[in-house]
Amino acid sequence: MDRISAIRNVEDALREFEDGEADLAATERRVAAVLRTYATEFDGDDDVFRAVGDDPVDGTVVVAPSEPAARERVLAATGVDDGPGEADRPAFDLERF
């Protein structure tokens, strides 16, 4: 799914919600499915990575050019400080998605 198709699908989901044809839960599921499909079929120069490990990073999916960059983006996306205190950071691995 390309970016334009993803945006159109999200717009359709929002329109159905606004028109009362779908409730919030159904709209959330549909938008999440669109984003998941877009991420797994991502066709850019970067790769899609998923964090596997401790909360709060487990399951976080990011797009990055490398594993080190993906690690930084996962920490930033989850609000975990990437400072010198590694002991306070959650343990996680990265897998290409």
TrEMBL record:
<dbReference type="Pfam" id="PF25252">
    <property type="entry name" value="DUF7854"/>
</dbReference>
<dbReference type="InterPro" id="IPR057176">
    <property type="entry name" value="DUF7854"/>
</dbReference>
<feature type="compositionally biased region" description="Basic and acidic residues">
    <location>
        <begin position="86"/>
        <end position="97"/>
    </location>
</feature>
<protein>
    <submittedName>
        <fullName>Uncharacterized protein</fullName>
    </submittedName>
</protein>
<feature type="region of interest" description="Disordered">
    <location>
        <begin position="78"/>
        <end position="97"/>
    </location>
</feature>
